Give the backbone structure.
Amino acid sequence: MPHGMKFDDPKFTKISHRNVWGEWTFIFEGSKLCGLKFRENTDEVKATPSNVQACAYASPDSELQINNRVRNAYRKAVNELNLYLAGKLCEFSISIKIYGTEFQKKVLEVTRHIPYGKTRTYKQVAIEVGHPQAVRAVGNVLHNNPLQVVIPCHRVIDSRGHLSGYALGIGIKRRLLCMEGALPNELMLE
């Protein structure tokens, strides 16, 4: 995940999936998930299928362009994502591959292991990777997280306990943390 990695190499397979949250683009290298990007459905932004055009409602013919290993990994990843977003899955088991420098990989691995329903601060992550002064660098790595949701950077908050710095926006971060029970569900507050 070098900064700004685009996954444009032909060794990567991109597949789009739409659900009630929006459009998700899965990026595979073989059967390993190495990218998951989200885009909310809005009136201004119309979700467009990827070059493979495999969506939740796609016909089987549209998946013939991908091999069985990728197809099976995609189906598992979509199933796990949908279960997670429905509050029925706490931990992803899909095989992943993390790209980046050693520091980036450490930050993402530490973040990957933050338990469902819990949060950590950027400072706690920096300490755990052995660079206690690298709080801003940790934030930069998480802002460019290639595996949104699967590596739960939404579980990292600032030292005051506030939500901050989420690439998908604070609204999505709040929604995910409420769903996990890490924050009180604001809809239930009177």
In short: Strands lie at 12-19, 22-29, 32-40, 120-121, 156-157. Residues 68-85 form the longest helix (18 residues). The radius of gyration is 17 Å.
